[in-house]
Design a protein that fits this description.
With 73 residues, the chain is α+β, with helices and mostly antiparallel strands. It has a single domain, classed as OB fold (Dihydrolipoamide Acetyltransferase, E2P), CATH 2.40.50. Helices cover 22% and strands 48% of the residues. Strands 1-2-3-5-4 form a five-stranded mixed β-barrel. The radius of gyration is 11 Å and the shape is globular.
């Protein structure tokens, strides 16, 4: 399910490469879907850039409540 024009409230990452979370406005904490370390890193960087620059994001969350895709607006 897509969620549009949401602010990033906070991010969190563990030192392991695929344990990454984002707190999305109105949705709460969601884990970034693991499976590709580069994918987790890229979404983590995107969410931090959105937070730092006060930008919104479009976020896709799958049936397991994990973030699979995101775009900065």
């Amino acid at each position: 399910m897509w969620h549009y024009n949401k602010k990033v409230v906070a991010t969190w990452a563990h030192h392991t490469s695929s344990l990454v979370y984002a707190n999305i406005e109105g949705i709460g904490w969601r884990r970034i879907k693991e499976g590709a370390s580069d994918g987790c890193t890229n979404l983590f960087v995107l969410f931090n850039a959105a937070k730092a620059n006060d930008r919104t994001v479009h976020v896709q969350i799958d049936g397991t409540d994990k973030i699979t895709t995101a775009y900065m607006v």
